[in-house]
C-alpha cells in the first residue's frame, strides 16, 4: 500500500443519518401495514409472534444464512495465510477486531461482509477474486468490506430485509389460510365482501413493498459509496479500489460464459457483494442495490486527485 494510512476511520455521518431515517420510515410503514392487517382480522398476537421470531433469526443467524447460501467455509490462518495477514493488518489500521474469514469456491471475483456487530463479523471472499486481483487491489476490496463493519450498515440492511420478510410472510399466510387466522376474519367481516378485503390487503402490500424497495435501494447505494470512501482512507490509495472494481465488473459482464447455476446462487446475496452479479445493460441494473461502476470509479479518481494535491503542500 502507498500514501497516508490512518490508524482509524471515522464513520460516515451522512450514512449514519440515512440509516436512522431508513429504519424510522420502514418501521412507520410496517406499523401501518400491521394495523391494517389487524383491522382486517389478523390477530395481533400472531403479528407480534411472527415479527419476534423473524427478528430473532435475522439478528442471530443472518450471517450464517448468507454464508450458507453461497457455500462459504470459514478458514483459519493455516488455510489462508495471505488473507489473514492482509485482513489482520487492515483491521488494526481501522481499529477493528479481526473478523472471521470465509472462502467461497467460485470463479466469480467478489467479496462481502456480514454479521451483527464488530465482534461478530465475517468477511467472505471468492477464490476467483484472489486469483484475478493484484495484492494491492485485493487489499482495497478488503478495506471496503471492513468499512461496512465499521459503519454497522450490515445490521441495518439486515433489519430492513427483516421488515420485508415479515410483510411477505404475513401476506402469504393470509392468502393461504383464506384470511382466517383463527376466525378473526369471519367475526369482523361478516358483512364485507371477502374479495374486496383481499384486494385491499394486496394493494397495501404493494405500496409497502414499493416504499421499502425505494428506501432500501437508496440506503444500499449510499452505503457502497461510503464503503468505497472508507477503503480509500484506510489504504491511502483510491486508485487500487477503482482498478479492482473495473476488473470485477468486466469479469461479471462475461456471465453468459459461466454456469448459470453459479450466477443464480451468487445473485441471492447481491445486496452484500462489493459488485452485484448483474449485466450492465439489463433491467436488473436499473434496480440495482449498487451505484454504477462508472460513478464509483469517478468518485475514487476524484479522491485520488485530492489526496495527491494535498500531499504536495
Structure report:
Helix 5 crosses helix 9 (238-252), helix 8 (194-235) packs across helix 9 and helix 9 packs antiparallel against helix 12 (293-311). The chain is built from twelve helices and four strands. It is globular and about 70 Å long. The longest helix is centred in the C-terminal third of the chain and has 42 residues, at 194-235. The two termini are 21 Å apart. The protein has a four-stranded mixed β-sheet with strand order 1-2-4-3, sandwiched between helices. The model is unreliable at 1-7 and 180-191 (pLDDT under 50). With 313 residues, it is of the alpha+beta class. It has one domain (13-311). Helices cover 66% and strands 7% of the residues.
Helix and strand arrangement:
Blueprint: H1 13-39, H2 44-69, E1 73-74, H3 81-93, E2 100-104, E3 111-117, E4 120-126, H4 127-132, H5 135-151, H6 153-176, H7 184-188, H8 194-235, H9 238-252, H10 260-267, H11 283-286, H12 293-311
Parallel strand pairs: 2-4
Antiparallel strand pairs: 1-2, 3-4
Helix pairs in contact: 1-6, 1-8, 2-6, 3-5, 5-8, 5-9, 6-8, 8-9, 8-12, 9-12
